[in-house]
Design goal:
Helices cover about 35% and strands about 25% of the residues. By secondary structure, the protein is an alpha+beta fold. About 20% of the residues are buried. The protein starts with 6 loop residues before the first helix and ends with a strand. The protein contains 6 helices and 11 strands.
Amino acid sequence: MDTNFDKKIFIDNFKSSCNKVQIKKFSKGETVTTYIEKRNQICIVLSGEVDLIRYDVNGNKTIISHFIDNEVFGEVFYPANTNNELFAIARKNSEVLFFTYDTLLYKCRRNCDFHKSLVSNLSELFLEQIIDLNLRIELLTKRSIRGKILTYFDILSKRSLRKTFSLPFSYTDLADYLSVDRSAMMREFKLLIDDGFIRKNGSKITLLY
């Protein structure tokens, strides 16, 4: 990983320096994109929050990923097929940058230096998302509801560098993200509190271990 790579500065330059990007605004609840068509899009959240959601044949909802400012998503990370449609939905009013991966094969009409920089820094741009996907796999492989909850709390604690943090989801959406039953999850929350693992105040969690 290049310790000199500043993703925020890079994205700010991306917005202003390349004529192949599109920037769009979305209202809360609006569909940002779907993964059913192979558009080879790279999407970056400039502001707001976006959830990647899947519905199974019975209409059950799973939140696959949650993206905040400067995070990257798009079909390049997930193979799309007709039986596995994914929806990127704005959780809040959001602004998103779109870039088609295929255009990396061609020069900008300006032959801009930034486009050359984009190619050379592509691995850095994707690295955080690849790490997040690996963490997601680790989370879902936990066999128990308690294991999933505590693993997720550990991830949030490490990201914030604090023992106290706020959940980015409602409890209903957290259950969808962890792929567990909400009632069973809330029972496990109570047990974790009773057993001295956590303290809970609304959406704020404090780890006691």
